[in-house]
Amino acid sequence: MHEPTIAELRTFLAVIEHGSFSSAARKLGRVQSAVSQTIATLEEGLGVKLFDRGTKRPTPTDAARVLAVSAHKVLSEVGALAERAASFSRGTEAVVSLCVDALFPLGHLVRACAAFAAEFPEVELRVATEALSAVTSRVLSGEATLGLVSPLGLTPKLERRALFTIRLVPCAAPSHPLARPRPGGEGPSVEELRDHVQIVLSERSEDGVPDQGVHSPRTWRVGDLHTKRALMLAGLGWGNLPEPLIEEDLRKGRLVRVVPQVFRKHSMTLAMSAVYRRGPAFGPAHAWLVAKLEELGREPHAPSGPTKTGARKKKKTSRRTP
Q: Where in the sequence is the domain holding 141, given as residue range(s)?
């Protein structure tokens, strides 16, 4: 059996669409005899009659109508392949490998990825989640080409673009002792905080920084926010969680805000940033995604706009964030 060529399939569909060999020839910029010969060659190669020529205008057979569906799919795939190749020839990356800090708002990420898929359908997107400096470690090692990090994961070895800030909410289950009302509406004191388990997001890193926002010597360390949230919902400790993650929990009373007195003098926000290496791997698709994340951060009901954060001194220790 003769395998049909792309030109034969285009000619076949043109005849079906325009209703005659002559009309298809004009559409394709060919002479009618060439179109007739192409269809005859295709019929012979497939071993199937495609058009009934007993009428004034060629009539597609039942087999032709079925095969036309497959022909459309083949030409669509060929067109997509050509578009993808053209995009790569213009310098668009084949893959964007993204590593995301566990603190990064998931809803914000999903919206950016949806917009990216529409803008760069030919680019493969890989998404991994890590905690704190593990994000920048992946970018530095080349495992990821773009990182989305909190200040605790920043390093001067990478280029940085500020995106937006997120608010951390100190909270606990309603049954937790720190959640009970106090005279005058005062929050728990530092001494009270030290009496209760604080659940913190943690990692072991060679390039760690001192604990940030940890006020209790009694800590439980977890590697992801969902585990931290589950333990807090069970009343097993208190801690700080990103506001976007727990908005519904707060609204439905599954968690309540706990505002320790010590927090009143300190901002409970984290500035999220994009980090990357300059070079051939950081092409137009990467740049577009970073710009989209920054744009989404400026929209109403989104995390706050970008703020500046300074570099932090490094030392070997356990890194934990509240």
A: 95-165+270-321
